[in-house]
Amino acid sequence: MIAAVIALPALSAALLLSLGNRTNKFGPWMAIIASTSSFLIGFLQFLQMLARPAEERTAITTVYEWLAVPAAGFKVDFALQLDQLSISFVLLITFVGTLIHIYSLGYMSHDENQRRFFAYLNLFVAAMLLLVLADNYLLLYVGWEGVGLASYLLIGFWQHKPSAAVAAKKAFVANRVGDFGLSLAIMTMFIVFGSVSFSDVNEGVAGAPAWVSLTIGLLLLLAACGKSAQFPLQSWLLDAMEGPTPVSALIHAATMVTAGVYLIVRSASIFNASEIAQTAVVVIGAISLLMGAIIGAAKDDIKKSLAGSTMSQIGYMVLAAGLGPIGYVFAILHLITHGFFKAVMFLGAGSVMHATNDNVDMRRYGGLSKVMIFTTITFFIGYLAIIGIPPFAGFYSKDHIIEAALSHSWWAGAAVLFGAGLTAFYMTRMVVMTFVSKPRWEDDVHPHESPLSMTLPMIVLSIGAASMGIILTNNHMFEHWLEPVTGFVEPEPPLPIQTITIITLSVVAIGVLAGIWQYRKIAKVAPKKVSFVVTAARKDLYGDVMNEALLMRPGQSLTKVLNIFDKSVIDGFVNGLGLFTGGISSRLRKSETGYVRSYAMSIVFGTAILVIVLLIVRL
Amino acid sequence: MIQTVLNTIPTPSFEYALLSPILIMFLAACLGVLVEAFFSIEKRRFAHLIIVFTSLLFAFSAVALQSGPKGRALAASGTVALDGPGWILQGTILLVATLSALLFAESKVDPLGDAFASRASTLPGGEEEKTVTKLGWTQTEIWPLFTFSISGMLLFVTANDLLVLFVALEVMSLPLYLLAGLARRRRLLSQEAALKYFILGALASGILLFGSALTYAYTGSLEFGQISNGISSANNSPGLLTAAIALVAVGMLFKVGAVPFHQWVPDVYMGSPTPVTSFMAGAVKVAAFGGLLRVFYVAFGALVWDWRPLIWVVAGLTMVVGSVIALAQSDFKRMLAYSSISNGGFILVGFSATNRPAIAAVLIYLIAYAFATVGAFALLTLIREQAGESSTLIRWKGLGKKSPLVASLMSLFMLSFAGIPLTSGFTAKFGVFTAAISGGATALVLVGVLASVIAAVFYVRVIILMFFSEPIPDGPFVVVPSVFTTIAITASALVTIILGLFPQVIIDLISSASVFLR
Fold it and tell me: Residue B517 falls within a domain, yes or no?
């Protein structure tokens, strides 16, 4: 039954892609139905799971035997693991996914490639579900690559924009680095434990030496950094905003980019066994949450500012996941609430762009609250949720993370508190620049509210953004729910909880006021003379420069050096073509024999080297 | 006196049934020669097609019928070993060769005719060339050459004797040298490739023969089983043996295109007519690795601790050099050539263990790679410009818009080469890496994973070019092929998908048969 959750969107994607234009008419609807039925089936599974006692909620379904090497005693099944953690993701992915499918119906209605877009969305949903439902790391890796593929396809969807193609490529490379980490981690598990299933690895970690959990932990962290746009692999996320806005909302805010957090929480037993790896996770989370917030505060492009915010919020989740059993539950809680409030804000941004001829520059917005009432209200709910005003969702999840971080160490606590202030600042800036201040529209822009297919998903998501926190934390429901999978230990912060809440809210209030004060007047063009912090933040804190220095340059020079050995015949041929037609040139002939001679030389030398290697071995 | 001498020479046994696949292909080649001699020029092509495809079908049936557990035996006085791996390799070669034959037979994609020169003897670019092209002549000798080469391959992978191995190598290679030089378009490049291939191939054959002679000098036998026994029992002058192994290894590694014996690969792959390239990258690769597998596991199996480091070095170099140089390629055929080199490296990784799963892993990799590569080359023949195939990658921009089907299939093969899960390439890489880890070559596997990360970049670059770029104004067009090429592409795509989604059936089949006879 649970396999159908994945199979339906996968099948729909396959049909849409293979049947081509014949499915143009009903294609989008088929995609929506596929996604909706996935959600319904997932919900049914959820209800069934609720009926079982907490210890018996994990169910593993083997679809078929995928790969087995009997002699090596190794086997991997195509098996799905449904437990409290994965069902939470299934519901989030299919629910938000379905809403974004519906939103896209309006948003992409003028796009000639609408069908292809929906096919990719379905493909993404299927791959993401596979990622969270897999019962072993190898199958998870399949989903991991699958969401990556869907993500590149969708980032580069508007391929007529060169920037989109470049962004897709960049996302690909950064993700490859992370994927490399994941494949090495899987390999290490296989070498050490002889299995890659979650249960075997969990069992194996207990008896394994410390270096094993450290190595695997750090490799998994690398993987998480790539997929979740954490420092130092963050720069692709900002460029990924070249994709259509629903994609940014679904993939680059609500679901895919949180896969890294899922990976860390799923590998809880590994991280629990290595304090160093955990500390590394906390440090990466702290750096990313501050970097993201700073970048978000400097960008005038509304989507890029939101992307910085996403990086920052995922930083919160990663940090929480690094805190161990006191943080796992809250990492996932924040992940879910973030899925709602960030999606609603991205969709709001899309709605604003829809109204302003696809302009993304917040300096040319302003005063939109008067013309776009639904968008404004829903966006504002998202805003209250992200900055953590009670009783909106972000308050509950973020407050818990702050408590947990404070009970871990003063610096982690300071980072999350400071981050909360920054969040309040840049989000206020965004709301002021977009909805509140005086209109600074381009001359030919006539803003209007978006159609129902777009506002409806925003309204539904904003209800979630407002209420999810209360619902999930009522009576510690979510802690009890996830405890059997991830474990849970009540955090013991050094200060009383009420005091922490008051401090947090004061920091947030300062951020909000600073935002309002700073942006009481807004220039239509970004000011040139700014402090070095702003300059750096506008350049994504030099993320690209770093990537270039670390990844691109060494790679390029290596290719160049090795390419010397490849004296291509094409050049010789093309250059020599003219000479050939006017009588065969002796020069070219010379160079030809030179080639074979040099090839033969290298064979002879190679033979000599082989003999030497063999002799050394025999000694 | 004479009687006693005669009595000491055993009558050679000759198991016709077991050897029938080889014999069928050989017979078909001879028939092909007769067709050339007695048929009029208009009827030759048709006659050849009938002979080639019927013989391929018969030969494959002969393999399929006899390859069960009962059909595993030594034949021809122990010089040919028809064991599990032997049958599997023969079957694979026949299937992959069938796909290549379909590409050979295609005459619809190029308005001038098939992929081969109308008359190989005419001067490239001369008047005579134009005349025979206009007359619509075709060089039908390709068919007997092709069948001879296949019979050589079938013998090569089952040869259990260094001399038979050498003869098989020549029977397999000589027709290839000729075929490489017969391209219809860019004939100078093609002829250059043929000459290079021939000269270097001759050098490598010489080295192999020298190595065989040294092996004989050390062990007193050319038969693999005897060599193995000779190595175990003799304990004098190991230097001689070292040289023997190295030289035999070089002769074989040249054929598989391992670094540092790889330079011929890009030039030859690029110059040859694309169907021939697909044949070389597919069937020939399977044959060459099959032979290598048997020589190292059976004849030199006792010395595994000696040659294994050598294979590690070569495998590591091959993967890294192949992948990195491929990054810089602007021509698709040349890129696939380097891809073929680096894939060779991955296959060599599977040589790190000598157990049954390792042999199975190598065989599965060969199957996965051969089908995907034939598929990729087949698709290349459809992407054309006025002057012939369009293999300059940069011109493929936006191909996904012109022909989503061709571009998607190409993407499938690229993803398989890159080893993305759920394609055959993943199953293959997974198998050899698993084998290598169980053989203790963890460091080599790390190099392999790194190389596959690099390799993924250039494979996916093709996809990005096709789907994420605007088409260029006078870019290539995609032609609709005849049923021949369509079958070849469909079959390769199916194998690539099935071996990725449901590999277990094939893994089980091959694992159960992965034992060499000696």
Answer: no
